[in-house]
Amino acid sequence: MTIKIDALDSALLAELASDPRAPILELAQRLGIARNTVQARMKRLEASGVVRGYPPNIDLQAVGFAVHALLGIELDQNKMDSIVEALRAFPHVLEVHATTGRADLLVRIAAQSQQDLLEIIQRVHAIHGVKHTETMLALATPIEYRSLPLVEHLTKGSGM
Fold it and tell me: Least crowded by CB within 10 Å, which of 25, 65, 116, 154?
């Protein structure tokens, strides 16, 4: 379901991104709008699924997971669901994307060391239906996952 968002929604999302624990009243004051307006907007954004939650943004390197990799997996097409379920059981798997091209799945992995990464890859290879993998080590992450610039672009010029 697609919902229409405006500049006020965008501003509210930006405030929440910078301070997810901000109270409703404080958000209203920052945005110069009524508390009830913030509550209504938040309820609408949450009910529509635009806002899926408020998890903390964890620095994985700070907790010992300094090795990040992207793993392209070529697989038996009729085994995709079972392979995805097997990957879901790996705590090191951060996200999985079904893709086009040679790799059927693109898996983002965090590991504590290269040896740890090797062991994870070997476990992936042991999943029934995995044919081939290609590993790319992330040397740096100059742009972390983000969505606000796209939301701001979408609502540019809609006024507040």
Answer: 25
